[in-house]
Design brief:
heterotetramer, A: 325 residues, 7-stranded mixed β-sheet, 5-stranded mixed β-sheet, globular, B: alpha/beta, Rossmann fold, 5-stranded parallel β-sheet, 12 helices, binds thiamine diphosphate, binds magnesium ion
Chain lengths: 325, 359, 325, 359
């Protein structure tokens, strides 16, 4: 066990994977000599050399397209998209190619690429350095979508991603890259996909969150405990595959659900959670399902503290949900 | 429309790399097979026996000669029009017809439109429809092969229109920077559906686009099997020697429609078509073979006839295959069925009419 | 009034707009001399010339990017994406630029582009000529997303789109381009955005659909009427802005909801509808909200008739929902 | 790192298009202003008074001379590093500082990071962060202006790294095909964050990429205001005469970090930096002005001092502005608030703590 920040845990995960498997390599913009603009790939170039730590030209189309070609040949590329806001030039390669290669080839061409990318708000990044586009990818059949909320999960889920057989979009909540530290198991630590984790147990309301919002929600949950409202907080971790069991079990227990994410609400990931609840746990529900999310606007710079769900907003929603008839 | 430029640019064609005379009849056979399959498939589509088809008539010399110059270890990244490449690679006709039908024998499991196939055993990567995406993938595979120390090249096929795609730009650029052992084989068939070559780009030739990436560009007459073969051999040797990628522009003409959904009379003249029909690559190679005595008119007739009956046989076998099993619909999304897909498959199997007619 | 197919109605709408406003122009692949691969732009080149009917090089990035530039200068470009499956190379221009231009410039640079594109399955188009990606765009703040289901709406909504002030993605259900005909008002016929239309009135179950699925759902609804189940069928038409009032009013009346779309279910547009119902009409619900959708796989060629919601599947879902306790 | 090539390619610089001598002091003033603002903003960022900053030191000559050659009617499509262009265009400093702060005076309403601004009245289009997107937009605007019969050009600014973007490819290609009156002004500052020019592309020069699109390419020494001015004047004249687009590569150097988040010592040497510092474009023009007597050392000192106090004054005014009104967050998503946004705004206003502290 070592005390690490989230970005350090990502870095350790990459070291671990590259040391144990020569087929793992890293490519992206500024990942080599610069060690990544957030330093997630720091030190890799020195240890593994230019053949395995590739500074690419400025083209996300190229990064993902080339990674796909490498994966087809049996390598395990880990592509970095510098900010997820810049993933869109690669959207065609991801949605039309990466997600569909195994299927369209009848299983002949599995295509296992991991795409890592910092995402989310809270660092004063404005419109184009703050977005949370997970819903686009969760809606894309064939992709797995993973979002860690703490250093141990970051390393453990990343190692699972790198050793998975399917394409994985690995979204790193950059707001807590350094703000959150924690004990991280050394070595080949793996956290399985498809399992949510219970951050706080409670019986009054279920709160579902992921990424940086887990911490905001935890603050809200803790504050409400002093008011006598005991919310259960579940960190989804794995959006695809989703731990539906955990979702439904919690709602069946509490009868109330609050969903928290940074992305805009309309057609956001929370909509799917609410829909599953409305389809499969309706008879348990004692109150409307509430979403606390970013607003349906682009991401604003000066007002990000008001745009993003904050402790007060989440607490307000939990309180209202707990009290609803 | 520009006529094909019979000369090459930048790179002189070494006479040594003409197709060996003993191979020529084999090349011709492949071209004839391509033509026969192509024509049969157009008929099958009209008869409703296959749903759609993309013909490649006029591009036989370019495709077969290019594929002929490759090693079976080389990886091929095709677009949707590469029948001649597929056949030359040795992919059995029956397998291709299974794909066109989308039956239980289809390696793609009936998931893709006709012409969108691939066969791992043949190092022929499954094509998609969005144009160009394969170009940059081929570069990634070349980088991977080099990293693994395997002396192969990757070859990617695409059309004139596809030079405008994002993936052409990123693929050529990456290849230039990393000196990837990739051959970019552009079949300039003069049209991207209804858009003529000169409205696609103001670049003088498509091969000239290599300049933007420090990648050597070569123009060849794509109706001349020797010119094509020579250019590919040379590009391949350079790539394997660490000299990096090459962009080859094979100037050809799409004699047929863009696809069975297209009517080319809407946008191009008979005069243009006829001008190019006169340069039919099959007729051209036939003349050469007749001239040097490797072929007689009679042997040629036999060849066409035997090819046709081979195609008929393969077709009968393919049409006898059962349809694809509906439950396979949920496979291969992921390596293993996710809980969510398992649930969907279950609900699918439990539907009141498990195999309802199309609405 | 003229009896037209849906694609003819689109064509008439374009003629109407271009005749009345010289700032309207059309650009895309094969839209000129070929009249569009589905003939939606047939005849335009002849009447309006090459300056207003522009056959572009094969680049969706270029089509949308150039259209944005034209719109900034005050033209009203109508861009065609040949199949919506090929919109992804333009995704960055649409999501990062088109949708955000007005917002990011503080309102200085409105950017009114209409993107028309055939979408959906049912024409044996397989993986890449059948997709229904509306959820990606509905989740993108700043875009309007419109889907007509009949010729009159196709013309009326298209004319509204072209004269709107915001960017509009106009998805045309190609499966019913020719399969559906109807009376279409002549002249400058407009159908407002944000208003759903009631296709069948009923009191037992609410069925929500759009595009080609309206017809499949109508068949199911009609079949069930003979069994004594009276479903209400609502054609949403306008996904963004959504007619939430109509959605909620119907659910409040029937207490039961079935949502039908072609796209994969997970994080599909149906999720948002279900979520709104779970949030705002929970107390009216007498049965779980059910979604009948494409499966969470890529779109299959040979099996499309089983992949797409068909009459039997929709009827089955309505019946079950009507009978649920 | 390649040193700047002082000569132009393809196009001889007509002596007639040197910057008029009487303009030179004005050009110099703009360059000095850019430098002063730039340095002040770096300090403001360190002090936490602005959140982020993208400096442009080393690129003053290229930016100011280019903007100087344009008509105020021409449309500018900048990236995020075009302070010199903005100032030369006449955008008031206070307005820019309002944007850097994101206050109530910010025309962008506090929605974008510093450096991402635009002002319709100045025909200066609001920049975004994704690199390159503006390139093809500039082509669309040029097509629109031509269609409306307005004799203007569009000019788009981008860096060496951005030549690898999809939008560069589509923008240049569209412009070539339609012969759009667009000037593609590439500031090759040798680095794209940590990636040096020679790893960005194997193209010999960036201007050479024009060949791929039939667009003339020109390389200029971007530290030489005359060379830049001449190239832009010539490109502009050609564009207005119907001769189509031009790609100009101005070879410069980014003397500072990529942004305030960047530490260039991680990836480049002091030696390289110092070599380019010796070619500081401001020093270069100053020498010329001193030599021909338009400037004295004393006048120069005064200029710097007065500029600094101007900047201080504008800054004080900007910092006195109120913060942006939170309720504006919901505006400009659409022309009119949608019902859904209206509801969200209402719920926002009704939150128990309308202006909670950041969590
Ligand atoms: C990204 C994308 N846009 C549009 C299409 C529709 N489309 C299919 S083929 C084609 C023309 C391709 O032309 P070219 O590259 O010259 O190849 P050819 O068909 O002539 O062999 C177009 C526009 C597509 N498949 N992919
Ligand atoms: C599409 C996209 N990918 C990545 C980034 C992150 N990024 C910002 S600037 C930059 C380098 C740009 O280099 P260049 O074009 O040379 O311009 P310069 O910054 O040197 O002026 C990168 C990679 C981005 N803004 N957009
Ligand atoms: Mg072609
Ligand atoms: Mg640069």
């Amino acid at each position: 066990m070592t005390e690490l920040t989230l970005v350090q845990a990502v870095n350790r995960g990459l070291f671990e994977a590259m040391r144990s498997d020569p087929d793992v390599l890293v490519l992206g913009e500024d990942v080599g000599v610069n060690g990544g603009v957030f330093r997630a790939t720091e030190g890799l170039l020195k240890e593994f050399g230019e053949e395995r730590v590739i500074d690419t030209p400025l083209s996300e189309t190229g990064i993902v397209g080339a990674a796909i070609g490498m994966a087809l040949y049996g390598l395990k590329p880990v592509a970095e998209i510098q900010f997820v806001d810049f993933i869109y030039p690669a959207f065609d390669q991801i949605v039309s190619e990466l997600a569909k290669f195994r299927y369209r080839s009848g299983g002949q061409y599995p295509c296992h690429v991991v795409i890592r990318s910092p995402y989310g708000g809270g660092i004063k990044g404005g419109l184009y350095h703050s977005q949370s586009p997970e819903a686009y990818f969760a809606h894309t059949s064939g992709l797995k979508v993973i979002v860690p909320s703490n250093p141990a999960d970051a390393k453990g889920l990343l190692l699972t991603a790198i050793h998975d057989e399917d394409p994985v979009l690995f979204l790193e909540p950059k707001r807590i890259y350094r703000a959150v530290t924690g004990e991280v198991p050394d070595g080949d630590h793996r956290v399985p996909f498809g399992l949510a984790s219970t951050v706080r147990e409670g019986s009054d309301v279920s709160v579902f969150a992921y990424g940086a919002m887990v911490h905001v929600a935890a603050q809200a949950v803790d504050a409400l405990a002093t008011e006598g409202i005991h919310a259960e907080l579940i960190d989804l971790r794995s959006l695809v595959p989703l731990d539906e069991k955990a979702l439904l079990a919690s709602v069946e227990k509490t009868g109330r659900a609050v969903i928290v994410h940074e992305a805009p609400r309309f057609c956001g990931f929370g909509a799917e959670l609410a829909a599953i609840i409305a389809e499969k746990a309706l008879y348990s529900l004692k109150a409307p399902v509430v979403r606390v999310t970013g607003y349906d606007t682009p991401f604003p710079y000066a007002l990000e503290h008001l745009y993003l769900p904050n402790m007060e907003r989440v607490a307000h929603a939990i309180r209202k949900t707990a009290q609803a008839a | 429309m520009a006529e094909p430029t019979p000369s090459t640019e930048n790179e002189p064609v070494a006479v040594a790399s003409r197709i060996p005379s003993t191979d020529l009849l084999g090349v011709y056979r492949m071209m004839v097979t391509s033509r026969v399959v192509d024509e049969r498939c157009l008929t099958l589509q009209r008869q409703g026996r296959i749903g759609f088809y993309v013909p490649m008539q006029g591009q036989e010399a370019a495709q077969v000669a290019c594929a002929w110059a490759l090693s079976p270890e080389d990886w091929i990244f095709p677009a949707y029009r590469e029948l001649g490449v597929a056949l030359t690679r040795g992919i059995p006709l029956k397998l291709l017809l299974d794909q066109f039908i989308g039956n239980a024998g289809d390696a793609m499991k009936g998931r893709q439109m006709p012409n969108h196939y691939g066969y791992r055993a043949f190092r022929f990567v499954t094509a998609s429809s969005p144009v160009g995406t394969q170009i940059v993938q081929a570069v990634g595979t070349a980088m991977a092969a080099r990293r693994k120390g395997e002396p192969i090249v990757t070859v990617t096929f695409f059309g004139d229109g596809t030079t405008s795609s994002n993936d052409f730009h990123s693929g050529l650029n990456f290849a230039g920077v990393v000196q990837a052992p990739t051959i970019f084989f552009c079949q300039n068939n003069q049209w991207a559906i209804s858009l003529p070559r000169e409205k696609q780009t103001r670049s003088e030739t498509l091969a000239a686009k290599g300049v933007a990436y420090g990648v050597p560009g070569v123009v060849v007459d794509g109706t001349d099997v020797h010119a094509v073969y020579a250019a590919v051999v040379q590009a391949r040797e350079r790539a394997l020697a660490g000299g990096g990628p090459t962009l080859i522009e094979a100037q050809v003409y799409r004699l047929g429609p863009h696809s069975t959904s297209d009517d080319p009379r809407r946008y191009r003249s008979d005069a243009e078509l006829n001008q190019w029909k006169a340069k039919d690559p099959i007729a051209r190679l036939k003349s050469e073979l007749l001239a040097d005595g490797q072929l007689t008119e009679e042997a040629d007739r036999d060849l066409w006839e035997s090819t046709k009956s081979e195609v008929s046989k393969a077709l009968a076998a393919a049409e006898a295959m059962p349809p694809v099993d509906p439950r396979t619909m949920f496979d291969d999304v992921f390596a293993r069925l996710s809980p969510q897909l398992e649930e969907q498959r279950l609900s699918f199997e439990e539907l009141p009419s498990p195999n309802p007619v199309r609405t």
